[in-house]
Amino acid sequence: MTVSIPQARPAHLGWRLLALVYDLFPVLALAFAGSAAMLLVRGGTPVEPGSAGAYGEAVWLWTLCGAYFVISWQRGGQTLGMRPWRLRVVDANGQRAGWPALATRYAFATVPAIVGIELVALLPGIERLLPFWIGAAIAAAGPLWSLFDREGQALYDRFAGTRFVRLTPP
């Protein structure tokens, strides 16, 4: 299936990773701002690790970061990290993807790793950093899938019905 955007082809893994590294900076800024806002809401008292407040803050930060990605993808098909390399998220027909597909893309790109971390952390006698390594491996499986996919799609793009393409210069 080809993308209908003129002169666009599936973006390979290297371009995906470059955009992800570049997007780390605005996401970190959002996480800091979101955490500062939560600290103000709590009146300056720290959250107790493992408490409902800690999980609530994690959900808040996940939602805030998701808003950055989904709104960026919906408005122009690109985040800040995707623009320098002419990368874009489109639907299966090469058109602007809708909110449901983009939210599904974000959820499938992040939730499996989060669930993996939490499930492994519940195991008794587990080494402290092992859940994070397993979460990282689960997160890496999505984009690595593009190396084996016949159309170069990541696993979460397959689930969401989206495509990650690189536009050729005009």
Number of helices: 5
CA-atom Rg in angstroms: 18 Å
Helicity range:
55-70%
Report the β-strand fraction as a percent range: 5-15%
List the helices and strands in order: EHHEHHHE
Q: How many β-strands, per DSSP? A: 3
Mean pLDDT over all positions: 92
Spatial order of the strands forming the largest sheet: 1-3-2
Cα-to-Cα separation, first versus last residue: 22 Å
Domains (count): 1
Set down the secondary structure blueprint:
Layout: E1 8-10, H1 13-41, H2 52-76, E2 87-91, H3 99-121, H4 130-144, H5 155-160, E3 162-167
Antiparallel strand pairs: 1-3, 2-3
Helix pairs in contact: 1-2, 2-3, 3-4
Question: How would you portray this structure in words?
Answer:
With about 170 residues, this protein is mainly alpha-helical. It has helices at about 15-40, 50-75, 100-120, 130-145, 155-160, and strands at about 10, 85-90, 160-165. Strands 1-3-2 form a three-stranded antiparallel sheet. α1 (about 15-40) packs across α2, α2 runs antiparallel to α3 (about 100-120) and α3 (about 100-120) packs antiparallel against α4 (about 130-145). The longest helix is centred in the first third of the chain and has 29 residues, at about 15-40. The radius of gyration is 18 Å and the shape is globular.
